[in-house]
Every structure is written in structure tokens, then in C-alpha cells.
Amino acid sequence: MSPVFGHGRLRLYLLKLLEESPRHGYEVIRLLQDRFLGVYSPSPGTIYPRLARLESEGLVTHEVIKGKKVYSLTDKGREELERRMDELADLEEELSASAQEFARGVQEDVRQTVRSLREELTQAARTMRDQGKSTSKEAWKETTERQKDEWKRQKEYWREQKQAWKEEWRQNWDDAWKTAIGTRDDVARLKLERLLRKFVEDVRKSAKNARLDDDDLAAAQALLDETRERLKNEVFRKKP
Amino acid sequence: MSRWTIEEPTTLDFDGVVALRVTLIAGSVSVLASDERPSITVGDVEGPPLVVTHEAGMLTVTHEKLWEGVLSWLRTHKVRAAITVTVPHDCPVSLNLVSADAVVTGMTTRTSIKSASGDVTLDGVAGAIDANTVSGAIEAQGLDGTVSFTSVSGDLSLAGASIDRLGARSVSGRIAADLDLGADSGIDVNTVSGEVALRVPESAGAQVSLSSAAGRIETSFPELARQDRTIAQSVTGKLGDGGGRLTVNTVSGAITLLGRDDDASEITTGPRMEK
Fold first, then answer.
1. Interface confidence (ipTM) of the complex
2. Do A109 and B176 touch (CB under 8 A)?
3. What domains can you pick out in chain A, each with its CATH number?
4. Distance CA B133, CA B138 (A)
5. Do B30 and A100 touch (CB under 8 A)?
6. pLDDT tens digits for range B162-207
7. Chain A residues touching B268 at Cβ < 8 A
């Protein structure tokens, strides 16, 4: 039911309309529309059951004229109307304000709607902003993690590199030392060491750009074995 | 020409009204579309009487002698009235208000409202709609047609509308709107420091351009590209088929563009009065 009618007020107003003259249901609806400047149109579903109820209470009665039910007030109904005269005066006053009431209702309704819209949009914007923040945070965390790994790797590499240089440097130093003060034999041994190192380096270098499969590896091993055997048997054997 | 001078609560009705113009300083004016006889209900009048004229279908309501020394009057008098007008829905409406609130519902042709500090409420209004306020809020739902909103510091809120053209301008007022974006509809929003929050359907098709000198720009549409330049940042791109146009410019106001689930119920389906 529309807020233009408080509890029991529509019933009272129906009694008043029927007191003025007997009317059929549709006419009652028209009169209500007129009374409310057309902004309130009660549906037949609102009015007919109420008329039926008033009738069952004995306040109104109806007769069928030209196929339409025409309602009129009974004495009992008139009595009730009499009794509620004060209330009716109030109602009249309220009704004159009803179009204004309706406008106020519209204003309130729109106000509530836009307020909830505002809240909804603000909330959605906030959620989105928070999400944006957390994703960027995650991304940041990930990159830092990656950078940390990279840094660790670099550190390790340089430590190895340093170790290698240190070794090489000591080797060179030993070599130089031995060359300066060592016997012929020592010097020869050093030179052999250098030849061996050079040999390994050269082989590594030439192997680097070549394709290497199992057969190549076997061939290389055979050659190396042969060379070692020959060195052992033909060169080093002579000097016990 | 008919003319009434109204000093106490009254209801008048008229044979036919083809246009309505109301000028009011304080109080409230409600304009309701109705199929019944056009009528005016004056609730209460304080200060000088209201003058109602009806000439050749033109219905005018104004304060008596309004333009003779308005300012001196405002200082010395309380000038207010509460007016409710019912007119046919196709009647053009023009309201000029100072601090009076306005409610307009159901009109379909042309609605033009100017107000200084009064709030403006529109419900189910169609056609050409033009609302201007200085500090008053403009709140609307269920609009349809060409809409122009302007305010200095008043907030603009628009809930649920299928709009051909929306132009909204404000200096510091916040703008919030929930819209349906039609194929060749255009939306233009400009503010200086006012925040802008817009929501359109996820499936909307539009060329979008959001730009702000200092405000933050957020959008839930991932297909829009962001450009940060030294003088301004902007988010631009095409949504869907790019049929409509959506442009927002601010100086320092934040901009938010959100997508609405297409099957989610619109916010307009709030509680409404039984008519």
C-alpha cells in the first residue's frame, strides 16, 4: 500500500466517498486518482477486496445495476463514519498534502539510491586500488627476490674467479722462484709442467669449436693414451 | 489571462498547460507528471504573496514584485513557499530557484533547472534535461535523453540512466554516475578538483579517454592503456566495438572508471513508491 494512506485511512476514505453517493468500484478508483492529483492510482486489486470486506462487515451493501456492482453505505456504515468524523477531518488535511508527500517520497527515494550508488562506487574504487597496490607489491617482491639471486650468483662467480687467480698467481710465483733458484732438473720439470698445461689448453681450445660425440671422444682418448704410453716408454723410461 | 495572488495554502487547477515556469527564492517546488487536470498546490507561503498566472497555456509562478529590489527584500524578509505542481508529462518545465529545493518526476520533453544552493532531485525524467546549481546537489535516477549538469561545488549523482548525451561540469563537486552506454552516446565529464566515479556495463562499446593533471586514474578495464607524461597522465583506449564516446578530464580530481556486470541488477531497482 502506498504511504499516502496510513493504517485504516483508506477504509475511512472509502466510506466517505460512498456516503456522498452510491458508486461502483471503478468510479471509486477514479475519484481517488482525482483526489491525489493523479500521482496515486490505486489498482482494482487494492479497492475491490476492501469494498468486499466492508460489505461483509455490514458497513456497505451493493446492488447490481446494468451488470455493475454499485456500492452504497448502510446505516451501520453511516454510524461508523459519524463516529470517526474527527479522524476524517485530519485525513482531509493530510490528503491535501499528499502530492507533496509523494514528491517528498520521490526525493527520499532518489537520495537513498544515489547515496548507495556513491557508497558502492567508492567501495569498488577502494577495492580496486587495494588490489592494484597488492599486485604491485608482489611484483616488487618478486623482482627483489630475483635480484637477490642474481647478486648471489655473481658473488659466487667472483669468489671462484678470485680463487682461480690466486692459484694461478701462486703457481706463477712458484715457477718464477724455482726458475731462479732451482737445479736444471727442477727447471726442466717446470718447463714440462708448462708444456702440459699448454697442451691441455690448446686441446681444450680446439675442442671448443668442434662437435664432440662418443666416437670422437673414444678416438681422442685412444690418442691421449697412446701419447702417454709413448711418453712413459720412450722418453721417461730412459731416466730411472 | 488569469492571475491569482496567493497568500495562504491553496489548490488551483487549470484547463490546459503547455509550459511551466516557476521562480522561487526559498522553500520547495515539486513538479509531477500527471494525466489529470493540471493543478498547483501551495503548501505555505511566508513573506510576500505568490503570483500565479495562466495565459495561453503558459503557467507561471513567481513571487510578487520579485524583480523590484530583490536584494533588499532578501535581507529583510523571509521569502518562502512550498509548491506542488502537476502538469502533463510532455509539458516543458523551467525552474529558477535560489535556495529552494526542486523535485521533478516523470516529465518527458524539456526540463531546465537553475538553482543557487537548492538541491535538485530528478526521477524518471526524459528528454532534454539541463540542471545548474552553485552549491546544491543534483541527484537523479532513471534519466533518459540528453543531460547537462553543471555545478560549482554541488555534487552530481546519477543512478541508472540510458543517456544519449551527458555533459557534466563541476569545479569542486564530486561526480558519480551509473550509466548505460549506448552505441552512439557521448559522455563528457570535466572537473577541476572534484572526484569522478563512473560505472558502465562491462560490455559497453566506447572510445575512452580519461586524463588528469594531478589526480589518480583508476580503471577496472584492463584493455585501456595508461600513459604517464610529465604534465598529465591519461588512460585511453577502445572498449568493445568503440561505438560510444567517454571522455573525462580533471585537474586534480581522481578518476575512477568501473565496469558493471551485465547481468547484475541495476541500482535503479531500489524501493520505489507505488504509483
1. 0.75
2. no
3. 9-96 (1.10.10.10)
4. 8
5. yes
6. 888 999 999 999 999 998 887 788 999 999 999 999 999 888 889 9
7. 113
